[in-house]
């Protein structure tokens, strides 16, 4: 009977250096979509969060991405590298915006849409890497995590 589609990004699934504020807003989109998905399901309303990776748009050029004029040398090896990488990636992104639009049309017409729809091979790779990291870290700290329950 209905379908809410919220646009996030790979930044909503995992954060990265230099993108903390951007990613935190996308994390919020992911969280509200998860809640809506469960809250609205009994009403026949679907909710999907779309997680595009890097698509070849103007997102990384000066007409969209705003950078501070000041560069702090203490951040040269972290945020500084990301600034440089973003410039190199601009208009070299792997994703095709036309294919993204086609995927969204397919999503809109799906009978049983997913909660999440990652789009792009870069997104799929980033999700797999984060999931593997979380699994490894959880296993490493499992004993401590389990020790906090009442027994």
UniProtKB/TrEMBL annotation:
PROSITE patterns documented for this protein: ADH_SHORT
A molecular-function term among this protein's GO annotations: oxidoreductase activity
Keywords: Oxidoreductase
Oxidoreductase recorded as keyword: yes
Top-level taxon of origin: Bacteria
Family: Belongs to the short-chain dehydrogenases/reductases (SDR) family.
Cited PANTHER family: SHORT CHAIN DEHYDROGENASE (PTHR43976), SHORT-CHAIN DEHYDROGENASE_REDUCTASE FAMILY PROTEIN (PTHR43976:SF16)
Name assigned to this protein: Short-chain dehydrogenase
Species the sequence originates in: Tolypothrix bouteillei VB521301
């Amino acid at each position: 009977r209905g379908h809410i589609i919220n646009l996030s990004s790979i930044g909503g699934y995992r954060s990265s250096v230099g993108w903390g504020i951007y990613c935190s807003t996308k994390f919020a989109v992911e969280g509200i979509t998860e809640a809506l998905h469960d809250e609205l399901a009994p009403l026949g309303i679907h909710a999907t969060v779309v997680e595009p990776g890097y698509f070849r748009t103007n997102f990384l050029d000066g007409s969209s991405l705003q950078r501070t004029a000041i560069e702090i040398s203490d951040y040269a090896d972290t945020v500084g590298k990301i600034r440089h990488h973003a410039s190199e990636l601009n208009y070299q992104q792997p994703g095709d915006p036309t294919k993204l639009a086609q995927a969204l049309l397919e999503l809109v017409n799906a009978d049983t849409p997913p909660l999440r729809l990652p789009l792009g091979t870069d997104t799929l790779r980033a999700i797999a890497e984060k999931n593997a990291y979380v699994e490894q870290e959880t296993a490493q700290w499992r004993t401590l995590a389990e020790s906090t329950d009442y027994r």
